Amino acid sequence: MNKEQYLEQRNALMAEIENLINEGKIEEANAKMKEVEDLDNKWEEITKANANMNALKDKAKITDIEGKSIDIKGAKVVDDIAKVIKDDDAKIYENAWAKYIQGKKLDAKEQEIFDRVNAEFNNAYTHDTSNTSILIPETVVAGIWKRAAEMYPLLGDVRKFNVRGTLTLKKHTGIAAGDAKFYDEETTTEDEENKFAEITLSGCELAKAITITWKLRSMAMEEFIPFIQNELAERIGAALGTAIAQGAGPSSNPREPEGIETALLAEAGTPQVVTYDDTDKLTYDKITEAIAKIHSSYLNGASIYANNATIWTKLATLKDNEGRPLFIPDVTSGGVGRMFGMVVKPDAGVSAGSIIIGNAYEGYIMNTNEPMSIATEEHVKARTVDYAAYTIVDGAVVDTKAFALIKEEVAG
Fold first, then answer.
1. Which among 215, 210, 214 is positioned nearest to 233, based on CA atoms?
2. Mean pLDDT of 224-240
3. HSE-up of 14 (CA within 13 Å, CB side)?
């Protein structure tokens, strides 16, 4: 049974149930509902079996794409729910979604596509029996993440997965014995002994509500969608952008993604951290000391991240030992300047006085465990409406050697 057959059977059963209820045949309707539950369970088992098969079939391809140091065991990149919409229907769903959250009436075609997509979404991602979240269209989500990444470039640069549920990564950390070396003729070649670590991304709930007036909601659709994108991007981007830099990690309550700063500071002896006293100026030698800590394989693609105040009060004033400025203003390369051949990117998620140097794509991984949805709540007396966006995401440092942290310490 493929997805089209499953949906055809399910829709037929739902139509029968609706007719039976209208005719007052409740017991027969309940029996049909049990058939729908059995069908859903069967489809879930088929989906799991296909996921396991594809994970095995595509294993070499996935490992090659995502980096030689990472092996994804049993994980299947889930089909984005928005992707099941035919290309001709994608724009219709976007318009239907916008009309729905604006409180406008949908036409028959819009209603059919809207109901079908969200039936699939809520069947795949159900939090509880009262779940009424509506899947945000792929195009709108792309706009949200694009805007968030512009404000928090570290978020934009990290490597991203879209795997439903828990994502477990096997990471090759080294060869304990048996690496390649020269031998004399009489010596037997050693057996290879590899060392692996495991990263588990089980997901952190991220939600944000915004409230607007009915009058504001009545704006034209072509204005309303960018407005919602920008509002959600600013709020979700701030939370996730800060978490990627400073998140407390899986041991926190509530659970947060692991931040780069957190991971580097948690290492025994903090080998990837350089500190400077807040009574002294940041020096050329401190920057070179930090860069030297990054493994050479990660330098191609590395950038420098700091908040705006740190960039313009500390980095932009730096000079080398000959008194020459190190910072070169340049807004054409994706940041505000360059230093040591690396782009300097302003990121409000990095802690005050700190500087992260590194290759975010190779050194950090982020997973969206559940796609972004939105729920609405009307307030009639106040003439306002709440929009609550919800997604499940997680993130962790893959290799601390991809980063170095320069941290300001208060003199004591």
1. 210
2. 82
3. 12
State the Cα–Cα distance between residues 43 and 40, nearest whole angstrom. Answer: 5
Q: Is the pLDDT of residue 53 over 70?
A: no
Secondary structure letter of residue 134 according to DSSP:
E
Element (H, E) at 400: none
- The torsion of the CA quartet 131, 133, 138, 142, rounded to 10 degrees, works out to -110
Tokens at 276, concatenated: 């400077």
pLDDT at 59 over 80: no
Contact indicator for 284, 318 with CB cutoff of 8 Å: yes
**pLDDT of amino acid 217:** 80
Residues 220-225: what's their mean pLDDT? 78
DSSP string, 277-332: ETTS---HHHHHHHHHHS-GGG-TT-EEEE-HHHIIIIITT-B-TTS-B--EE-SS
Distance CA 171, CA 199 (A): 7
What sign for the dihedral angle of Cα 140, 145, 150, 156? negative
Using CA atoms, how far apart are residues 348 and 153, in angstroms rounded to an integer?
9
CA 205 vs. chain centroid, Å, equals 12
Burial 350-367 (b: 16+ CB within 10 A, else e): bbebbbbbbbbbbbbbbb
Structure tokens belonging to residue 221 = 């659709």
Distance between CA atoms of residues 257 and 201, nearest Å: 8
C-alpha 73: how far from its chain's center?
19
Q: Please state whether the peptide bond connecting residue 329 to the residue before it is cis, i.e. omega within 30 degrees of 0.
A: no
Dmax (CA) for the chain in angstroms is: 90
- Distance, CA of 241 to CA of 261 (rounded, Å): 13
> Are 216 and 197 a contacting pair, CB within 8 Å?
no
Quick: pLDDT tens for 128-144: 434 456 778 877 887 88
Whole-angstrom distance, CA of residue 333 vs CA of residue 323: 25
Q: Is 58 exposed, middle or buried (0-12, 13-18, 19+ CB in 10 A)?
A: middle
The vertex-365 CA angle with 166 and 175, nearest 5°, equals 95
Amino acid at 371: P
SS3 243: helix
Burial label for 130, CB within 10 Å (0-12, 13-18, 19+), is: exposed
The tens digit of pLDDT for each residue in 161-206 reads: 877 777 776 654 555 554 555 556 666 655 545 455 667 777 788 8
Cα separation, 388 vs 103, whole angstroms:
15
Enter the tokens of residue 101: 């959250």
